[in-house]
Amino acid sequence: MITTTALTKSYGKTPVVRDVSLHCEPGTITGFLGPNGAGKSTTLRMIVGLAHPDHGTSTIDGRPFVELPNPTRVVGTLLDPSAMHAGRTGRATLKIAAQMAGMSTDRVDHLLNLVGLTDAADRRVGGYSLGMRQRLGIAQTLVGEPEVLILDEPANGLDPEGIAWMRGLLRDFADRGGTVLLSSHLLHEVQATVDHLVVISRGAVVASGPLSELLASSSLLVRTPDPEGLARALRSAGIGYRPGPDNTFTVDVHDGRITPEMIARAAVDQQVPLTELRQSDSGGLEQLFFSLTAATADHSQEAAA
Amino acid sequence: MTSATMTSPVRPVDAQSPGAAFPAIPFSRLLRVEWGKATDTRAARWLLALVAASTVGLMLAPLLAPSRIDQTYTSYLRFAAVGLSILLPIVSILTLTSEWSQRTVLTTFTQEPRRIRVINAKVTVSLLLAGGAAVFGGLVTAAGLGVAAATGRELDANLNAGVLVGYLLFVLLSVATGVAFGALLHNSAAAIVLYFALPIAFALLGRASTSLGQWVDSGTTFDWVLNGEWSGHTPQILATVILWVALPVAAGLVRTVRREIN
Description:
Order of helices and strands of chain B: HHHHHHHHHHH
Largest sheet of chain B: none
Strand order of the largest sheet of chain A: 5-6-7-3-8-9
Distance between the termini of chain A: 44 Å
CATH topology of the largest domain in chain A: Rossmann fold
Oligomer: heterodimer
Number of domains of chain B: 1
Number of strands of chain A: 13
Helix content of chain B: over 70%
CATH architecture of the largest domain in chain A: 3-Layer(aba) Sandwich
Shape of chain B: globular
Structural class of chain A: alpha/beta
Radius of gyration of chain B: 22 Å
CATH superfamily of the largest domain in chain A: P-loop containing nucleotide triphosphate hydrolases
Order of helices and strands of chain A: EEEHEEHHHEHEHEEHEHEEHEH
Number of domains of chain A: 2
Distance between the termini of chain B: 37 Å
């Protein structure tokens, strides 16, 4: 379990992280989502004691990370796959991690196999691709059989197959009771992986909750060959609507008070045929995230100008 | 054994406060890991080989120039000391800095967040390496003396405990100075350059003003240690040890604890 309360940090006068509170439960994967420079990495570094917050606290299972007697037996951390000794082999890197954790180095072969690096194990990490370093980093997080994983942009450098592989690995880890916190700057990258989302922008949390709720569309789309009939049917059922292009209507769900079934029944009552009835494409989160990314892009252009 | 971990829970259900269930990392384990890190890379092995080569190379001096160099056990041993002190401090600089340059501190300090313990282990490893190197230097000296005796030279067997202590202290102080530069600067290139450049600057200062120089020029004072010339020099020797070893190590520890790791 990972908990942070009101983590806050500035570099000089620039606020980097503002009042970030997170709560990650065992058995879940939490996606920490935000544009580049939003404060994700700094937050993760504060959780594992590499950066010091100005205010706020963070704990793992109720204790500050830096007070864990042997942290890698509790938390597997991957913050930067390029931060590995280029002159050491993949196998030697994992052996050091196993020794530190007090685990048998017999475990190293199993982990190399698990992340698909058996053939590259005795090559120097300096010659690894980013994807291979990412895999080695994942193996390193698992060395101490932890219950918590903290991963910064773990999908960076992985091909689609690698992302699918990692998704399976993390899902399995969470299903066995583990807690996962991972960051990403790409919504579609984590959409299929995470249960919970925390969206951060310019250092502050702007949205958080279960993925299904955040992704739920706030409106329904209805299509009919008889638009006048459907308008009549919706009016008589007391359902508000906005006519759209190509014989479509958009209906606001009003936080779930209006359901697809109510629309279908209204149409049946007036004998109006429907050819389509579904959630609108423009998910609220997707739009929110797009606007955040766009805002940041504008901001950086201003700064550059 | 390990394949079972992929189907079993990440923690047994009855585990209470799992974070506390694992004992702290013993210092002996940190020491073993840091010893491995200091010696397992190609660069480290090359450097250690060069330390050995330069020690053997310096031993050739008293062998090849018997007319100009005292043919005594002590002078042979001092050539070994000088040979060791050229490159061995670089090994200890890299032991302290390479994790910063390679950015592996990002991993190391999440494995052991009590950063001072990690630095203590690295310092201990450096001093153990210095001890090992001193023994190696002793063996090279013995070999050199053996060769000299075999060529029929008369050698003055003037070794005593004081000479051996001076030799060992000189090697340890050379390495400790390297440790101090690495502990403070966190950057391999800067530490190595300054390790060579600063003492030259201070030696020049010493030449300009002998009375001031003997309080800051470790080149002079460490030679006194090697040659056992403590009498009348003890305060100066201690002053340079404080300036070149104790202060930078202390400042380096403070910097290491406070530094944000990016």
